[in-house]
Amino acid sequence: MPARALARVALVVVVVAVLVVAGRRAGALVPEFVRWVNGLGPWGPLAFVAGYIVASVALVPAALLTLAAGATFGVVKGVAVAFVGASLGASAAFLIARYAARGAVDRR
After folding, report:
1. How many CA atoms within 13 Å lie on the side-chain side of 72?
2. Is the pTM of this model over 0.85?
3. Alpha-carbon distance values, 8 to 4, 46, 59, 68, 101 (Å)
């Protein structure tokens, strides 16, 4: 394997490792995030969706955010907020992966 390809593989491994560590540490920040969202009033659901998108890309466990949405907004509104956040977060993760790795995949 050429040195350049090995360097790219190492970079991908480091980026994934950093995202996993950040995601696990961010799990401890979920209660603080929920308190902040509660203080935003009618802007709370929009802020929660934005946070859910960022957390999805950063590999924060979705179960924490989904449970927090239910506890914060109630069952019906929480399901809607979590669904929108999860869908947009998955789309963002897909688009980032597609365009960040497209060149490497095309070459192979």
Report:
1. 30
2. no
3. 6, 36, 21, 37, 11
For tokens 């924490």, what's the residue? 64
Task: Please enumerate in sequence order all residues whose Cβ is within 8 A of that of 53, keeping only pairs 6 or more positions apart, or say none.
Answer: 85, 88, 89, 92
Which amino acid type is present at position 21?
V
Cα three-residue angle 15-94-38, rounded to 5 degrees: 85
Contacts of residue 63, defined as CB under 8 A and 6 or more positions apart, other chains included, come to none
Q: Model confidence over 46-55: pLDDT tens digits?
A: 999 998 998 8
* Structural domains in the chain (count): 1
Measured distance CA(83)–CA(97) in Å, rounded: 21
Between CA 74 and CA 48 the distance in angstroms is: 13
Domain, as residue range, for 77: 3-107
Q: Is the pLDDT score of 99 beyond 80?
A: yes
Q: Which two tokens stand for residue 63?
A: 């179960």
